[in-house]
Amino acid sequence: MLNRRGVMLAAGGVVATGASLALPMTWMSGRGSSATAQLGRSEAEQHIMRIGMVAKSSPVQAAEPFTVEMPVPRVARPVSTWGDTDVYELALQPAQAEILPGLTTPVLTYGGSFIGPTIKAKSGRKVRVKYVNNLGLPVNVHLHGGHVPPESDGYPMDLFAAGQSRTFDYPNGQGAATLWYHDHTHHMEAEHVYRGMHGFYLIECDSERQLRLPSGQYDVPIMLRDAHFDAAGSLILDVEHPEARSTLLANGRPLPYFPVAARKYRFRLLNSSIHKIFELDLGGVEMTQIASDGGLLPEPVTRTKLTLAPAERVEVVVDFSRHAVGSKLVLSDAGGPVMRFDVTRTAPDDSRVPARLRSMPPLPAPARTRRMKLAVAPSKMAYAINDLSWDPERIDSVIQNGTTEVWEIYNGDTVDSEFGGIDHTFHLHMVQFRVLDRDGKPPLPGEAGFKDTVLVRPGETMRVQATFKGWPGKYVYHCHMQEHNVAGMMAQLEIVP
C-alpha cells in the first residue's frame, strides 16, 4: 500500500502503465536512482548504473555560502542559417560537472553542461534543432511553453533511440518569452531533468526591444532548483524524502554570489525543480515583475516576495543603483539563502521599465467549460486527473482546432482528504492560457499575462482560458511536479480539424 507520506512527499510509489500499476518502485528505496530497473529496460538500467547509482553513502555537507560565482549559461550558436531558419545541433550526452566545489558529479546533459546552452530565438523566425542521442537510452525533448506542431512537442511516448538523432522544428510564431527545454521521456522525465537535462530557450522580438528594458549582459537567466548529493558528489534521487534535497542551486552552483553593477538588471527566474516550490524574497528589497511564463505582463507589478512553482518563470527587474557599491543583497527561499548579489561597481544605465508593457488581446467567448480534478485516486493508489491515470491509448479531451475553452482546475487533495493536503501544478502543452480567477477571486499578482503552468493549492479551484489554435494532433497536460507526473497525473488532448 502507498502510505500518506509516500504519496504526499514522494509521488513516486506507483507507476501508471496504461490502466495497470506496478508497485513498489526501486526509486522508493532512497538509493539515489530510479525505477528504471522495474521498467524492463536493461539498456536504461545499465545507463543509470554508469552515471553513478548510490546504494549507501552519507550526504555531502552543505557548501559554504557565497564562495562560488554564479555562471551564466552559455549561448548556443547556430551551425547554419538559411532563409528564415536558424539551425542548431545539440548532443544529449552524459558528462562530469563540477557543481559542488572540488567534486565532480555524473550528470545527463544537453551539449555537455549541467545546464544546457541557451538558445536565443527571434519571434517570427524559425529554429530547427537536431538532437543527437548519445545517452544510451531512448529519450525525447520538450520545448516547454512553445507553440509547436505535435511531432516537435516531445510527446512522452514518442522517443528516439540511442545512437539516433531527431530534428525538431520550432516556428516561434509567439511573442517574446522565457521558455525552457527539458526531457519528457515518460517514466523517466523526473530522473532525467533532475540529473541535468534542462536549458533556457529565449524568444526575443523587436517590439520588446523598443521598450528599453535591461539587455545584453544585464539580462540574466537564472535557473533555480534543489538537489541532494552523496559524499562523493553524486546526485541522490530519493523521491520519498524530497526534503532531503537541501542544496539549492542557482545556474548549477550551490549558494553562489553574482557580481552586479549599481544599475538595473533583468533576471529571468526559472524553477526547474521536479518537486520544490520556491518562496523568494530579496530581504524586503523591491523587485519589479515584468513577465511570467508567456512573456510580458500588461504592466509592471512591484513585488517583495515571489512564489515560483516547478516549471514556472518570473522575470523581474532589480535596480541596484539604490544600493551603494559594496552592498550585498541575499535572495532567500523560505528555508534559507539561495544566492547573493554583490554590488561591485558602477555602470551607465539608459534602460527603463515603462508603465505599460503590452496590450492583452480581448478574451473570446468560450465554446465550453471543462473540469479537471487533480488528486490521488484512492481506488488506484495513483495520481490522476479526473480519477484517471495516464493511458497513452486514451484521448481525454477532443478539441476542435481554433476553439476557445475555459478549464476549471480543482485540486482535490484537500487537507481533510485521505492523504492530506498536496500541492499540484498544472501545465498545458501547445498553448498559453489566461488565468481568469482563483476560487472566484482575481488572479494573483503577476498572473495577468499569458501562462502555461500554474500552482494549485489543496482545495483550490482556478479557471483558465485558452484558444487551441495550431496543428491537429495529440498533446498532453499534466502536473509539473514531475514526481506526480510519472506516477500518473497526466492526460492527453487531441486537436482535430
Residue share in β-strands: 35-45%
**Which runs of at least 5 residues are low in confidence (pLDDT < 50)?**
1-58
Can you give the mean pLDDT? 89
Principal-axis shape: globular
Q: Report the total helices.
A: 5
Number of distinct beta strands: 34
Level of helix content? under 10%
How do the strands of the widest beta sheet line up side by side? 14-13-12-16-21-18-19
Structural class: mainly beta
Give short descriptive properties of this protein:
globular, disordered N terminus, seven-stranded mixed beta sheet, 34 strands, 497 residues, mainly beta, six-stranded mixed beta sheet
Q: Can you describe what's shown?
A:
The chain contains five helices and 34 strands. Residues 1-58 have low confidence and may be disordered. Strand 18 (287-292) and strand 19 (295-303) form a beta hairpin. It has a seven-stranded mixed β-sheet with strand order 14-13-12-16-21-18-19, with no helix packed on it. A six-stranded mixed β-sheet has the order 25-24-27-32-29-30, with no helix packed on it. Strands 3, 4, 5, 7 and 9 form a five-stranded mixed β-sheet that branches. The protein is mostly beta strands. The radius of gyration is 21 Å and the shape is globular. Helix content is 6%, strand content 41%. It starts with a helix and ends with a strand.
Question: In summary, what is this structure?
Answer:
This protein is mainly beta and 497 residues long.
